[in-house]
Design a protein that fits this description.
It is a single chain. The mean pLDDT is about 85. A three-stranded antiparallel sheet has the order 2-1-3. It starts with 13 loop residues before the first helix and ends with a helix. It has two domains: about 60 residues, Methane Monooxygenase Hydroxylase, Chain G, domain 1 (Up-down Bundle); about 100 residues, Methane Monooxygenase Hydroxylase, Chain G, domain 1. By secondary structure, it is mainly alpha-helical.
Length: about 200
C-alpha cells in the first residue's frame, strides 16, 4: 500500500505520523514505575508525581485518557488565547511555518482533548484556514508571485499552493495547445450529409 499524503489523519500518512510526534508539556499526576528514562534530567528509574516533561502527542494522548488520567496536558502557547487573538486580527500576515509546520493537523488533534481551550482552538483553525485560503490560491495562480512565499506556509497550505501552481500550469498548457480550430466528429459530419441528401430528395 503506498504512503498517503492526505491531510486527513491516516495510519499510512507520513504527515500524520510527523504531526503526532510534536511534543506537549505534560505533568504527571502519579508516580510511574520504570519510565524514568523519559526524563533526561532525572537519574531515578521511576517518574515521580508532579514531574513536568514534554511528551510526543501520541504518548500524551494515551496517558491522558478519561479512564485514568496519568498526566495533565498543557496546550502549546501558539494555540493559546494570545496567539488566537493575533490570528483572529490578521491571519494572512502570520508565518505559520515558523509557528508550527503542521499547524492545522496538530491543532486538530489538540481540539480533541478534554480541555477548556479545545473548542476555541477548533473554531480558530477553521476561521484561519478560510481567511488564508483565498490568499494562498491567489499566490498559486499568480505567476509573478515570490516563490519564497511557500516558506511562510504550513504543510497543508504548501500542498495546496503546489497543487494550485500545477493546476495553473496545466491550464496554460491546454490553452496554448488547444487554440487550433475545433473539428466536428465524423459521426456529426455524416449525419449532416445524410440530412442534406434527404432534403434534396424532397
Amino acid at each position: 500500500m503506498p504512503f498517503k499524503r492526505s491531510y486527513f489523519p491516516n495510519y499510512f500518512s507520513i504527515d500524520d505520523i510527523l504531526a503526532t510526534q510534536e511534543r506537549l508539556p505534560c505533568k504527571f499526576q502519579m508516580k510511574v514505575h520504570r519510565l524514568g528514562f523519559l526524563d533526561p534530567s532525572s537519574e531515578s528509574e521511576d517518574i515521580e508525581e508532579g514531574t513536568s516533561i514534554e511528551l510526543p502527542y501520541w504518548l500524551a494522548r494515551s496517558l491522558c485518557s478519561q479512564r485514568r488520567q496519568i498526566v495533565t496536558v498543557e496546550i502549546p502557547k501558539i494555540y493559546k488565547e494570545a496567539y488566537r487573538e493575533i490570528l483572529k486580527a490578521d491571519p494572512c500576515v502570520v508565518d505559520l511555518h515558523k509557528l508550527e509546520i503542521y499547524f492545522y493537523e496538530f491543532g486538530s488533534y489538540l481540539a480533541r482533548f478534554d480541555h477548556p481551550d479545545s473548542q476555541p482552538i477548533g473554531a480558530m483553525l477553521v476561521q484561519t484556514f478560510k481567511d488564508r485560503f483565498r490568499q494562498v490560491m491567489d499566490w498559486a495562480q499568480n505567476s509573478g508571485a515570490d516563490p519564497l512565499i511557500a516558506q511562510r506556509l504550513d504543510a497543508l497550505e504548501r500542498q495546496l499552493f503546489s497543487e494550485g501552481r500545477q493546476s495553473r500550469a496545466r491550464l496554460n498548457c491546454w490553452l496554448n495547445t488547444g487554440s487550433s480550430q475545433l473539428l466536428a466528429a465524423d459521426m456529426v459530419v455524416s449525419h449532416k450529409k445524410r440530412k442534406l441528401v434527404e432534403l434534396e430528395g424532397l
